[in-house]
Specification:
The complex is a heterodimer of chains A (279) and B (403).
Chain A (H helix, E strand, L loop, with lengths): L1 E5 L3 H5 L4 H10 L6 E6 L11 H9 L9 E4 L18 H6 L5 E5 L16 E5 L5 H9 L7 E7 L9 H4 L13 E7 L2 H9 L9 E3 L7 H8 L2 H4 L3 E3 L7 H8 L5 E2 L18
Helix pairs in contact in A: 2-3, 7-8
Chain B lengths: L1 E4 L4 H12 L6 E4 H6 L4 H7 L4 H4 L3 E4 L6 H10 L27 H5 L11 H22 L4 E2 L3 H8 L1 H10 L17 H10 L4 E6 L8 E6 L6 E10 L7 E11 L2 H14 L1 E5 L5 E2 L2 E10 L2 E10 L11 E3 L8 H16 L6 E8 L6 E7 L15 H9 L4
Parallel strand pairs in B: 1-2, 1-3, 3-4
Antiparallel strand pairs in B: 5-6, 5-9, 6-7, 7-8, 10-11, 11-12, 11-14, 12-13, 14-15
Classes of the chains: A alpha/beta (279), B alpha+beta (403).
């Protein structure tokens, strides 16, 4: 596998360096044909320039990257740009332009669209953000991903873009929606308990090996529902890391026979509970 | 050797332990509090240790951190008061001595301060007091010995303690530092700070209380030129009152402020007390965290170091950062060498000093090191050895062989 990460630092950006040019250069270079994984980091002033020109460039250059299977748009951290300040755009054209793509990871949900959300071969879709918009969630459950094995969505909080509620999320777990799905992450949520309760008895669990409810505000309430579920017992792995469960609940989970991650217990601040990524 | 420090604390204890280990006589300790209250002096200590006159030699003089001691802090604020009794040229070591301190407290008002944990009582007046004490000690030592052997000269300590001055000294010496947003005179308040950031397109900065140590008074601040949003990450908090001005304090955990109503007063308060604003250079990452490096330099040579790996832009160890060695971070030898030479260059910019903890970050992408702080008392590093010795033993071996 050959992987390339492209990013533009502050000084380069101020000097006028452009991600489009770097992509052109990559496309015309010797590595292009071999490239299997491309990571687009900070494209320079990601808080004032959206990702649309990158999408256009990648779409235009699709013939140059025949082996590309993995794509990450927006791999940057708090040293470069706040997640909620990253300006995305409609990334769906990438899905159309790269029919052989297997994995797509997106960081940042501001101005993010994924319409139309369809791909015959995509196996992994990950969206990392502080708050995922209702429209993106709707695009995903309204879309078509027959081969999708892993769906990992950071739900986030109201303040940073999560404008939905449990009803927005429920259509994602309808049984026949993603026939190949084995890893479901509905995580980093401020309504993690509600999600856990809704999932505990959901038929979709029967097809999963991993349920990832980590990084959210899970408390004993949600955990109780998970513990009481026969379906949850059949999972190979339950990720509950970063949670607000009590010590008692943690030991009950540990003794339940479940393969479960209960690390990073949080202490609630005046009864406020926060997901891990809220920015 | 004479140590001016807070008695009974871990720094003094660590040093005495190191001297014992090397078979050196214990240092004579002059507690800050006694010095400030006039019950002890440098000459009295020198006499006590038989360190005067032809047979007395020239003892090594070490100034240690005055912090973490409320009564000392109060005495220093009193000494920095406009009505404090003081010597001629008392403010001569203060790098911004002619700048007036906001809402000065009289000696009497300062004396009436009571301890409130974490509270930032009056940073600029505290520093004025400390620089007055440094000036006094400098003069006193000069009267006792022809060429006093300060491990770190009082004038250097004053310069290192003032981040505005440190940045200037390092820039002049050609040591790589993050770029300055503007000189402190050009940014008197929040509004001009904001305007300057927009005008210079420096949307991400660190604003640092000029005379704070550690994470105290440090703000990682960024503004979004498109939406007008802003974000300040800092330990500074404040309580508002109806009948008196707000009180500022250092919280134990980092806070994220996004509301101008909270950010403006904090920035204004820091700027009034004197603050240094520089570019927030993106730090290199380790996994999903970032880090910077505390590199100790003793006698011109880089020695002990520890990386502080953090999930937040402010990496200080008490803020739940993880300590790691440079090898654990898998930094290339080339980068490690650059960090060392950069830190050595920083200490060399202060020719009267032989010990400092230099904070170095490695720029993301460029791998270029930058010095972000010089700590004159930065030698308290736990469980880190160099040639099998802790930082105190190493400096006593390198510098303290005499008396």
């Amino acid at each position: 596998m050959t992987e390339v990460k492209l990013s533009i630092g502050y000084d380069e950006y101020e000097e006028g360096k452009k991600m489009q040019d770097m992509l052109e250069e990559l496309a015309n270079g010797p590595a292009a044909k071999e490239l299997t994984s491309l990571i687009i980091g900070d494209w320079g002033g990601a808080y004032e320039n959206d990702s649309s020109e990158i999408v256009e460039t990648l779409v235009r250059l699709n013939g140059q990257f025949p082996g590309l299977r993995k794509l990450f748009i927006g791999d940057m951290d708090f040293e470069e740009c706040e997640v909620s300040w990253i300006l995305q755009s409609n990334l769906a054209p990438l899905l159309t332009a790269y029919p052989e793509l297997v994995s797509l990871t997106i960081k940042g949900s501001s101005q993010l669209e994924l319409d139309p959300a369809r791909h015959e071969k995509l196996e992994e879709l990950v969206i990392i953000c502080g708050g995922l918009g209702e429209d993106v969630i709707a695009s995903i459950h309204g879309g078509q991903f027959p081969r999708l094995k892993k769906l990992e969505l950071y739900m986030g909080v109201d303040d940073y873009g999560f404008d939905g509620d449990l009803d927005t999320i429920l259509p994602l777990i309808e049984p026949d929606k993603f026939p190949a799905l084995t890893y479901l992450g509905l995580k980093n949520s401020e309504i993690q308990d509600e999600i856990a309760i809704a999932l505990a008895q959901a038929p979709i669990l029967d097809q999963l090996h991993t349920l990832d409810l980590s990084m959210g505000t899970l408390s004993d309430k949600g955990a109780e529902a998970l513990l009481g579920s026969e379906r949850v017992k059949k999972l190979q792995f339950l990720n509950l890391s970063h949670h607000y469960m009590s010590d008692v609940m943690i030991s009950r989970l540990q003794q339940s026979g479940l393969h479960v991650d209960v690390s990073e217990q949080q202490e609630s601040d005046d009864d406020y509970r926060y997901p891990a990524l809220t920015e | 050797m004479i140590v001016i420090g807070n008695a009974e604390n871990r720094r003094t204890a660590g040093l005495q332990e190191a001297r014992k280990l090397l078979g050196l006589a214990p240092a004579v300790v002059v507690p800050y509090l006694d010095l400030l209250r006039g019950s002890k002096s440098l000459s009295e200590a020198a006499e006590r240790g038989g360190m005067l006159g032809r047979s007395g030699g020239r003892p090594l003089l070490r100034l240690d951190a005055p912090g973490e001691h409320f009564e000392v802090e109060r005495e220093l604020i009193m000494l920095g008061a406009p009505d404090a009794a003081r010597e001629r040229d008392a403010d001569r070591l203060h790098p911004a001595g002619d700048r007036s301190d906001p809402q000065p407290m009289s000696v009497r008002a300062a004396a009436a301060l009571v301890e409130q944990r974490g509270r930032l009582y009056h940073p600029s007046q505290w520093f004025r007091g400390y620089s007055r004490l440094l000036a006094r000690l400098e003069r006193e030592a000069e009267a006792l010995w022809p060429a006093p052997r300060w491990m770190n000269a009082p004038a250097d300590i004053a310069d290192m303690f003032d981040k505005r001055r440190t940045h200037e000294v390092l820039t002049t010496a050609g040591v790589p530092v993050p770029r300055l947003l503007a000189s402190p005179d050009e940014i008197p308040d929040y509004e001009t700070l904001h305007e300057t950031m927009i005008k210079k397109r420096l949307h991400r900065i660190f604003l640092k209380l000029a005379t704070g140590s550690g994470a105290c008074g440090v703000v990682a601040y960024q503004i979004n030129p498109r939406t007008g949003a802003e974000l300040a990450v800092t330990t500074v908090g404040f309580d508002s009152f109806i009948a008196k001005p707000p009180q500022y304090y250092n919280a134990l955990k980092l806070r994220r402020y996004t509301e101008q109503a909270a950010i403006r007063p904090i920035m204004n308060w820091l700027l009034k007390h004197g603050a240094h604003a520089e570019q927030w250079v993106a730090k290199a990452g380790y996994g999903d965290r970032t880090f910077d490096i505390r590199q100790l330099v003793i006698g011109g040579e880089a020695c002990h170091s520890v990386a502080r790996v953090s999930r937040t832009p402010i990496t200080n160890l008490h803020l739940r950062s993880e300590r790691m060695s440079l090898d654990e971070l898998q930094l290339s030898q080339g980068v490690q060498d650059q960090v060392k030479s950069c830190a050595e260059g920083a200490l060399a910019a202060f020719p009267g000093s032989s010990v400092a903890g230099i904070d170095v970050l490695i720029g993301r992408g460029s791998q270029q090191p930058y010095v972000v702080d010089v700590n004159p008392f930065g030698d308290l590093l736990y469980n880190v050895t160099y040639h099998g010795m802790d930082a105190y033993a190493w400096q006593m071996k390198r510098l303290g062989f005499e008396r």
